[in-house]
Design goal:
nine-stranded mixed β-sheet; single chain; alpha/beta; Rossmann fold; 34% helix
């Protein structure tokens, strides 16, 4: 596929409102980009609009589809993605009558970026999301998050229950990542990650950010295309019972070795197609990894923020989709989901046979699970 044509075709660089138009399918693998697989087709993408919401403190770029009067579903992406991460869910839910919205988190894509770690604390991102809803005149929404976006969604439910019909999270359970590394290490499976060898378990990569932030950032930015090809891969069930590669990041002196860029590996087309890969590379050529990596640099403030409510119990309907083969956010073989189970009073937990990049790897199953849960648990938020 001609990369220049594809990047031009994304049409996401005009302030004030554009249409996201997918690239020509020339050279694309039809098995990875059709309605049967749940992945968005070229014609589907033309229904998604890109616009900006600006306030006195921040500017958010967001994708939107569906009727403006429909009940809102706001999708929040994680590390290291952009709002486009949800393109395979935006389309089917919008066709059902939902108003689907997927912002670029601050520091990512076309949303405003900042040059200090504290700007990426959870309290700031949660405020961005609430202000976005205010600008769009959305009183209450279904909030859906993946990875760090899940942490944001959980915090919105914790701090702003009046702005929620319900909360859904992919891969990251409640009361874990949003509290920081110290919290995560208490929930590690020590049979797989002996404390003497892996003090932070599979979260050793988080400790590497704390110790060598600049080096981690440089290694990701050295070859963006290779970085995304290495990171965004399907889950491997053969990994069960073995230390995941993220546990070795500190031992080996970096994500890819000391001072090394990501190696060149084939694209995993169950996760990324040419359109996705080029869009991610284009986005991170603009922003770099400083902002998205800074999500990991605010543990103390994030923990304080989590404690600023009288109760950390979530009483609204909550959906958690775990990846059977997500061995960083391991809720199958460790205690990582235990705090969520004890603190969510109306929890629906479904396991998806996927790795971490669930909404790409199993798009139809993720969309269906969200819709079934809304219909069963949040019927007031179903389109009339």
């Amino acid at each position: 596929m001609d990369r220049r044509y594809l990047l031009k075709a994304t049409g996401m660089a005009v302030a004030g409102g554009t249409t996201l138009v997918a690239a020509s399918a020339r050279g694309a693998d039809p098995e990875q980009n059709d309605e049967r697989s749940g992945r968005m087709t070229d014609s589907d993408a033309r229904d998604i609009k890109g616009q900006f919401a600006r306030t006195a403190r921040h500017a958010s770029f967001y994708l939107e589809a569906g009727p403006s009067a429909g009940p809102a579903v706001i999708f929040i992406h994680g590390w290291p993605e952009i709002g486009l991460a949800w393109r395979h869910q935006i389309r089917p839910l919008s066709l059902l009558g939902f108003r689907t919205i997927a912002p670029d988190v601050r520091g990512c894509g076309q949303s405003a970026s900042y040059d200090a770690h504290p700007a990426y604390a959870q309290r700031e991102i949660v405020r961005d999301m609430i202000e976005l809803a205010d600008v769009l005149r959305i009183e209450r929404a279904i909030w859906v998050g993946h990875d760090w976006g899940a942490a944001v969604a959980w915090n919105i439910a914790r701090h702003h229950p009046d702005r929620c019909h319900g909360v859904a999270a992919l891969c990251v359970p409640y009361d874990t990542l949003e509290r920081g590394l110290a919290r995560l290490t208490t929930l590690v499976n020590r049979k797989v990650y002996p404390k003497s060898e892996f003090p932070a378990g599979q979260f050793e990569y988080v400790a590497f950010y704390h110790d060598h932030f600049d080096e981690a950032q440089r290694s990701f930015e050295a070859n963006l295309e290779n970085t995304f090809k290495v990171i965004m891969r399907r889950g491997d069930p053969a990994q069960v019972g073995k230390p995941f590669p993220t546990a070795f990041v500190r031992k080996q002196g970096g994500w890819f070795g000391p001072g090394r860029p990501a190696p060149d590996v084939p694209v995993d087309r169950s996760i990324l197609d040419d359109f996705d890969l080029a869009a991610y590379v284009q986005a991170y050529e603009k922003t770099g990894f400083f902002g998205v990596d800074s999500l990991y640099m605010n543990d103390a403030d994030n923990d304080r923020f989590a404690n600023e409510t009288r109760s950390d119990v979530i009483t609204m309907p909550a959906l958690f989709l775990s990846g059977r083969n997500d061995f960083v956010n391991d809720t199958e073989y460790s205690a990582l989901a235990d705090p969520m189970r004890s603190k969510c009073n109306d929890l629906t937990h479904k396991t998806i046979v996927s790795g971490h990049w669930m909404q790409h790897e199993q798009p139809s199953e993720v969309s269906a699970a969200i819709c079934v849960w809304i219909a069963a648990k949040v019927p007031a938020a179903w389109p009339s």
